[in-house]
Description:
The complex is a heterodimer of chains A (254) and B (374).
Chain A: E1 6-17, E2 20-31, E3 35-39, H1 46-53, E4 61-66, E5 69-70, H2 75-81, E6 82-85, H3 97-108, H4 114-120, H5 136-147, E7 154-158, H6 166-181, E8 185-190, H7 193-199, E9 202-207, E10 210-215, H8 217-226, H9 240-248
Parallel strand pairs in A: 3-8, 3-9, 6-7, 7-8
Antiparallel strand pairs in A: 1-2, 1-4, 4-5, 9-10
Chain B: H1 22-38, H2 41-63, E1 68-72, H3 81-88, E2 92-95, H4 100-109, E3 114-120, E4 127-133, H5 138-151, H6 176-206, H7 209-214, H8 220-250, H9 258-285, H10 292-306, H11 321-324, H12 328-341, H13 350-370
Parallel strand pairs in B: 1-2, 1-3
Antiparallel strand pairs in B: 3-4
Helix pairs in contact in B: 1-8, 2-6, 2-8, 6-8, 6-9, 6-10, 6-12, 8-9, 9-10, 9-12, 9-13, 12-13
Amino acid sequence: METNKAIISVKNLVKKYDDFIAVQDLSFEVYENEIFGLLGPNGAGKTTTLEIIETLRDKTSGEIIVDGFSVDKHPNAIKQIIGVQLQAAGYYPNLNLIELIELFAGLYGAKIKPMEMLEKVNLQDKAKAKYKALSGGQKQRFSIATTLINQPKIIFLDEPTTGLDPQARRNLWDLIIEIRNAGTTVVITTHYMDEAEQLCDRVAFVERGKIIAVDTPDNLIDQLINSGFERKKEVKKANLEDVFINLTGKEWRE
Amino acid sequence: MQKDINNGTDQVPVRSSGTYSNTTATLALAKASFRSIMRSPSAVVFTLAFPLIFILVFGFLGSGGTRIDVGITPESDINNPVIGMLQKTGMIRLVKDKSKDEFDKLLEKGNVDAMIDVHRKVNTAAYSVNVIYTSASRDKGGILKSVLNNLFYDKTLKPTIAEIKESSVKGREYKTIDFILPGQLGFSLLSTGVFGTAFVFLSLRQTLVIKRFFATPVKRSSIVIGEGIARIGFALIGALFIILIGHFFFGFTLVHGVVTVANMLLLAIMGIIVFMGFGFIISGIAKSESMVPPISNIVTLPQFLLSGTFFSIEAFPTWLQPISRALPLTYLNDAMRKVAFEGMGLWDVKFQIMILLIWGIVIYAIAVKVFKWE
């Protein structure tokens, strides 16, 4: 993180629906090769913002540049360098994982070995399984595998850990960190602050369509403490999730 | 299908890994969709099982035409040319090995349609044939009477053994299957096109599969064409299967053999494309999967009943016939029958094809307006 070169830059983004402003004047930058967290309550505009960057939704105004390409002028160029995991997206029915990967390889025009993609997310044993038959954690890992098919520079993960058990969640963190270490920039949304704190290099807080804070988790916490904030209860060196993992083991349950 | 990188404003080659191919993407989609259809029970049932069941039922019902059960009195001389000739007509089933009393009871109930008694006349080569009809089965008795009249000038007595000279020209026999099969083929194409397309696009839209596709460089046209290729391919395999089973098991008439089959498959393609248009419209206006069957039935049922699938539309009351003549399936069925049985070429059924084309234009004009991607 020595060089903070922006790979995504969002300037004055506005998205209006008929009588409702989802995003108002939102600006931020995502640096190359970082894990960037977009945090905020439901309905704050996180998903809308992501989908506009992903070229899936039109914006009302503002400027977005992704790796030098403008969403207005070169949406297809952007599509080729990003991988997208949608919140609650399904996959083509009746196909097994290998066949789904083959389909996406065709859609991206990428030449890959489907089995290698599944190995990346540790799903090689499920190659012949249907997507519907996977557990929650497996589904999310498969979704992430589909984002990697075109060897993207940036991947977008919209609430990838929602609904997962603690083991699957930690397991997914490891996978995301691995992907980042392999040189990919990761943009992620989550409702779990412990996750953001552990995983993200920087986070942005979105509230009512506006960014209200952007910084590293550490700095944001320090700022709060410096402002005189104190927790009501002395924090122990472990929390209940640590107890859960300690008692039930670290291995994956699926 | 062109091989340019991107469309419209987006002309920047992005990666060194080569140009993006819309053809590859389209074919990948077609392959995926085809695999999915082949594994979908409802597609297989509607395209193959239903039409085949109807063909089986009508094939067996219709193959022999009318059957007349004729009892032979126990005293009769079985090995005589009269009985032999009766059997050759293929219409008459002989009931043997029953006593006269039993036959009398069966006659009364109409379980046998007539009873026949054949005796060689004493000292001659001629036979005496005695027929007893029953009022319980007048129709069939009448048919038997004319059959016998064909065999003999006089049904009871004839001095010499009757010799039948068939002088009628042997025309092509128009069998039940020749009428039923094209209708069932049309029905198969209609249900695959309408139900299949409507369900697939609605569910792909609702489960955000299409949205995920949009995050890849694939074009919208590739999605539609890919799906279309898969569905047309599946429908053609189904059509070929129905035609071959009909031909080899039920004697479905294919006047020019392979050429006729090829013409029928070309008609099938035109039909399925028009019917898919209905599917696109339904997927656009249906709000949920449970709305697909009722709306689809509004499209398919009238055509199923009124387009000459089971009965010739001439059999309908005159006020219904204009409705029949407005439906696309009527013209597909009509063209199929003309091609298969009368051996016409596609140019000979250009009128029917033109009507299908007009339907296609109207349907797709509406589909473009109401189809929803998200």
